Amino acid sequence: MKKCQYCQQNAVYHRKISNEYVCKDHFILTVEKKIRKTVRKYQMFSPHDKLAVGISGGKDSLVVLYNVIQIQKYRQSTVPIHAILIDEGIQGYREESKAIATKFCSEFGITLHIVEFSNTFGLSLDESVKMIRDEEFNACTICGTVRRRLLNDKARDLGMDYLVIGHNLDDQAETFLQNILRNDLIRTLQHPPWGNIYDESGHFIPRVKPLMEIPEAEITLYCYFKNFPIQSNPCPYVESYFILRERVQQFLNQLEEHSAEIKYNLIRMHENLLEFFNSSSNDGKLDSTSKWGKKNVENFQNQCKLCHEPTGRQRTICYYCELKKKLRILQ
Asked: CA dihedral in degrees (131, 133, 138, 139; nearest 10)?
């Protein structure tokens, strides 16, 4: 039996990237230390910032909310933390996670705001799926687009400084590789792994990702050791579609069995790419005064003619409103 390198108790986990053997207590402590270090390294938020945490009731969102609470408590912050849950309206799925999130927030005295698809977007996800006529759109496309919009809108309405998201190391590595495979340089440059996008117009609340260097497997084990509830029901729509991300995930997991550093290398490569464009850009998109892109600006040139929110340079209607038109919510 291997011993914990910090206290000589029996080890329960081997962290291959650093060849560490750790006991239960030191596993928890090292994960939390890494999260705090990430927040400091990328200057994600301060004790004075107003934070909204996107919470789904899943393991990632519970872990990030708990650690943000602890970080701000340690910093003696008196600014209340808010949580935002998006209820897509998936029968038999969202009820469980909503109950988990409600109980968790209540336990820690966090105000939970629940935003429903049906009341804001106009249709629940279940209703939207029934109306799909275009192969370009599926449940995941609708869900991702609407969730991002509603999270941002609610955080903006609440006057938040930052929106905290529970994306982990696996999520960030998969997204970066997926964008490469799609030849999507714009998304790669506009969405750094740490999540800090600054928008001078105030339309977008900057996102931060304190779990960006924590592997998904460690988050799962952390939840188990901390006795956090974990949702048991998977989303019923995930298996219905071919998803590039799933193939990328399988590929990276296979590589990781032989090269423990592979996902970290992708994150570092993403940062190096941003640093290169940051230092060579003359068009104002990327701020050369900040290594970590704290003031990166999404350089939108157009405004959606329907909702008046920013949209891409080649668009007159944003993707959110385009979905509404496809689903006949807008004429």
From this structure: 0
CA 199 to chain centre: 18
Q: How far is CA 3 from CA 6, 11, 27, 32, 260, in A?
A: 9, 5, 12, 20, 21
Helix %, strand %, coil % of the chain (to 5): 45, 10, 45
**Residue 286 DSSP symbol:** S
DSSP for residue 329: S
DSSP 161: S
Neighbours of 294 (CB within 10 A): 17
Q: How many CB atoms lie within 10 A of CB 305?
A: 12
Nearest to 68 by CA among 96, 108, 41: 108
Going by C-alpha positions, the residue among 328, 147, 326, 211 that lies closest to residue 220 is 211
> What is the distance between the alpha carbons of residues 58 and 85, in angstroms, rounded to a whole number?
11
How far apart are alpha carbons 87 and 123 in whole angstroms?
Answer: 11
* pLDDT tens digit sequence for 264-290: 999 999 999 998 887 765 444 444 334
The confidence band for 197, taking pLDDT boundaries of 50, 70 and 90, is low
Closest CA to 273 of 211, 208, 186: 186
Query: How far lies 201's CA from each of 105, 157, 204, 206, 298, in Å?
Result: 31, 15, 8, 12, 10
Q: What are the pLDDT digits (tens) for 123-180? A: 999 999 988 766 567 888 899 999 999 999 999 999 999 999 999 999 999 999 999 9
Q: Check if the beta carbon of residue 23 is closer than 8 Å to that of residue 9.
A: yes
The Cα–Cα gap between 315 and 66 comes to: 39
**Alpha-carbon span 72 to 50, nearest angstrom:** 11
CA–CA dist 212, 64 (Å, integer): 10
Reply yes or no on whether the pLDDT at 22 is more than 70.
yes
Cα separations in angstroms, 193 against 165, 171, 306:
11, 9, 31
